[in-house]
């Protein structure tokens, strides 16, 4: 499940995890990943660097369903309506 928010930030939830992400040209940047329940467990980075989807997939392969959902949402919105390829 994904929903848009201000400034192009999107939120996707899968398997009890919530990810905040945005498109940065052709890259998907993962801003924050945490438990959907609001529990303090979080996957994040230190400092101003914002990892892309590929890096997060490599670092946290156990969340592949979340990464797949984000990728699907990205491509679903990247193509104009009615586009058949």
What does this structure look like?
The chain is an alpha+beta fold. It has one domain (2-78). 26% of the residues lie in helices and 32% in strands. It has 2 helices and 5 strands. Strands 1-2-3-4-5 form a 5-stranded antiparallel beta sheet, with helices on one face. It is globular. It starts with a strand and ends in a 7-residue tail after the last helix. Residues 1-6 have low confidence and may be disordered.
The number of distinct helices, counting runs of at least 4 residues, comes to 2
Indicate how many domains the architecture comprises: 1
Q: Can you count the beta strands?
A: 5
Summarize the biggest pleated sheet: 5 strands, antiparallel
Global Rg: 13 Å
Keywords:
5 strands, 2 helices, alpha+beta, 85 residues, single chain
Topology:
Layout: E1 2-4, E2 10-14, E3 17-24, E4 27-35, E5 42-43, H1 53-59, H2 64-78
Antiparallel strand pairs: 1-2, 2-3, 3-4, 4-5
Can you give me a brief rundown of this structure?
With 85 residues, the chain is of the alpha+beta class. It is built from two helices and five strands. β2 (10-14) and β3 form a beta hairpin.
């Amino acid at each position: 499940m994904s929903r848009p928010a201000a400034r192009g930030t999107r939120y996707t939830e899968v398997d009890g995890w919530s990810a905040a992400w945005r498109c940065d040209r052709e890259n998907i940047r993962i801003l924050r990943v945490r438990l959907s329940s609001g529990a303090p467990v979080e996957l994040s980075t230190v400092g101003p660097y914002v990892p892309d989807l590929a890096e997060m997939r490599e670092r946290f392969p156990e969340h592949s369903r979340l990464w797949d959902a984000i990728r699907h949402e990205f491509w679903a919105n990247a193509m104009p309506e009615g586009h058949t390829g």
